Amino acid sequence: MATRTSFNQNTGLVNALTAAVRTADATGSAVDAQGFDEIAHIAHFGVSGDSAALTTAVKIEAVLYHSDSSTQNFTATTDHTGQVSGASDGVFALVDGAADDDQAYKTSYYGTKRFTQVVINYTGTHTTGTPVAVTALKMRPYSAPVA
């Protein structure tokens, strides 16, 4: 019989950006990868109040940053899965049309920096706003179980 591992015992969960309706840029908290082999981020977008206006000029992007410090020198990174083709470094979610909202977008970081962070960037005028949240999963711990 195959050995089972428990998601609860082997995964740390971080509320990196609290769910809220937003109309402007928002920076998630730094997520510390110490003690884990993999960090995944999930950006959750609700139904946009501006969905009729979403275009390439009125859009939202989720951008992954990394750093050796929890408080400074964060830079956008391409060391992750799901890089949006043709977008700036770090973009793993692009919401620029009504079909793109009300979805969750994921990325896994495979770089060497200790800290990661997601920034939600708004371009153009967002009058009504869009519900957004970011969750981080800290996976494959060096020592389990994790809290």
Could you describe the 3D structure shown?
By secondary structure, this protein is an all-beta fold. The protein has a single domain (24-141), classed as Sandwich (Jelly Rolls), CATH 2.60.120. It is built from 1 helix and 10 strands; from the N terminus they run αββββββββββ. It has one helix at 7-10, and strands at residues 11-22, 26-27, 31-32, 36-45, 59-67, 75-76, 91-95, 103-109, 115-123, 130-141. Strands 2, 3, 5, 6, 7 and 9 form a 6-stranded antiparallel sheet that branches. A 4-stranded antiparallel sheet has the order 1-10-4-8. A hairpin with a 7-residue loop joins strand 5 (59-67) and strand 6. The longest helix has 4 residues, at 7-10. It is globular. The chain starts with 6 loop residues before the first helix and ends in a 6-residue tail after the last strand.
Put the structure in a nutshell.
The chain has 147 residues and is mainly β.
